[in-house]
Amino acid sequence: MASAINYLTFFFFLLLVPLFTAKSVTQINSNSVLVALLDSRYTELAELVEKALLLQRLEEAVAVHNITIFAPRNEALERDLDPEFKRFLLEPRNLRSLQTLLLHHIVPARIAVSRWPNETTRHDTLSEEDPVHLSANSESGRLVGSAEVVRVEDVVRTDGIIHGIGRLLIPKSVQQDFNTRRSLRAISAVKPEGAPEVDPRTNRLKKPAPPVPVGSAPVLPIYSAMAPGPSLAPAPAPGPGGPRHHFDGESQVKDFIHTLLHYGGYNEMADILVNLTNLATEMGKLVSEGYVLTVLAPNDEAMAKLTTDQLAEPGAPERIMYYHIVPEYQTEESMYNAVRRFGKIQYDTLHVPHKVVAQEADGSVKFGDGEETAYLFDPDIYIDGRISVQGIDGVLFPSMEKKLPESEKTVDPVKVVAKSRRGT
Questions:
Q1: Which residues pair with 344 in a beta bridge?
Q2: Which candidate, 239, 308, 315, places its Cα nearest to that of 276?
Q3: Rounded to the nearest 10 degrees, what angle do helices 83-90 and 172-182 cross at?
Q4: Of 125, 117, 128, nearest to 70 (Cα)?
Q5: I need a labelling partner for 334 at 20 to 30 A (CA). Which of 141, 157, 207, 286 fits?
């Protein structure tokens, strides 16, 4: 009898183990649409999402499928949320109404511009109560219910899209709860708009020009600009058929390398970028095409630990440096806020398909998830909006790559000393 009880206990333990371990394995990628929402122009919406305790639910949603967020602009929330309705939403007993309101703005599907319907179509939302209706017309453009889409594909990520809309969407169920709870007549949180403006020269309605985000990223992902192997494709010239925004990437890369040399302690990293590889030129091409980069720069003390075997293999310096380049623009503040909120973050690197893991440790950011780890040692050495350089105290290697045993490593490390250059 006792053995039977022990067997049943062990059986139920096996059933429960996946339930406790599955959530711990889930990690939010740094380029997730949720991270972008917390660091976007829609700060009022992001604050409401955190107050509604919805982040964990949204993390589970993006782990299953793509999502589309219709995000009201900050001024729209300030305009549409009158003080009484806002107090109603923020009361603890009305948490469910606040959650329903916010989830009503999120569709569990990827709705890009190319898939936007011409006729009115019904789409279920994460609120699982009131659907939203998408439509399009020649006068107002794309609509979500009665709200106009003012920023089409403002944020695009692999797991979701954010469209900026001009007003708050209020589900009928939330409106009814508010009316019932407050015993008020026909109160709407959406204020009426004034009469449309008419152009006196043509006697037609004025149509505002579609907004174009300043410095928007290129249409193609950064890996499409990279040719097979260690070299990158040349950047097309600006103009018809070229990139929408042209940046002087060569000058920016030269500027950040000079900054590394003048900062001190990063001469070996600068020397590898310029002399041992052609990465400085390739990075300049990418920045000229409109891409952004974050360089995790190991300091001289860390680079001195690289052995002859680690650098002698053909293409090894390029692979090592590619693993330290993140195709996103991150600062010390953005990375620390992300790891503090989500625990662990996976950053894509140019060493495809390897990612570098970051997590909070000792009040800083620690990179790496195995034996080779490095701390954010010198934050924001160089930040210009296109290139960000963050100093770290170790050299990182992908966890999948096999490392040489200690007995086969060369005793004397290779010291790469920056050559003197004019003007530096």
A1: 359
A2: 315
A3: 100
A4: 125
A5: 286
Residues composing the chain: 424
For tokens 């992902």, the residue is 221
pLDDT at 15 over 70: no
Round to the nearest angstrom and report the end-to-end CA distance of the chain.
82
- Range with the lowest mean pLDDT among 69-73, 108-112, 175-179, 383-387? 175-179
The 8-class DSSP code of residue 285 comes to H
Contact assessment for residue 40 and residue 157, using Cβ atoms and an 8 Å cutoff: no
Crossing angle of helices 43-51 and 95-103, rounded to 10°: 140
Beta-carbon contacts of 104 under 8 Å, excluding residues fewer than 6 positions away, are 125, 126, 127, 129, 130, 132, 169, 170, 171, 174
CA-wise closest residue to 239 among 205, 288, 204: 288
Indicate the burial class of 319 (C-beta count within 10 angstroms; 0-12, 13-18, 19 or more).
middle
Q: What is the pTM of this model?
A: 0.54
What is d(CA 102, CA 70) in angstroms, rounded to the nearest whole number? 10
| Amino acid found at 48 | L
Q: How far apart are CA 395 and CA 149, in angstroms?
A: 45
Beta strands 132-137 and 293-298 are unpaired
Residue 360 token pair = 């909070």
β-pair type (198-199, 28-29): unpaired
What pLDDT, on the 0 to 100 scale, is given for residue 240?
43
CA–CA dist 215, 244 (Å, integer)? 9
Residues 6+ apart with CB under 8 A from 344: 27, 28, 357, 358, 359, 369
Complete DSSP assignment for 192-220? PP-PPPEETTTTEE--PPPP--TTPPPSS
In angstroms, the CA 161 to CA 192 distance is: 29
Provide the phi-psi class of 265: left if phi over 0, else alpha when psi is between -120 and 50, else beta. Answer: left
Contact 150, 165 (CB under 8 A): yes
Give the β-pairing of 28-29 and 344-348: parallel
pLDDT at 107 over 80: yes
Report yes or no: 387 and 248 within 8 Å, Cβ to Cβ: no
The 3 state secondary structure assigned to 48-98 is HHHHCCCHHHHHHHHHHCCEEEEEECHHHHHHHCCHHHHHHHHCHHHHHHH
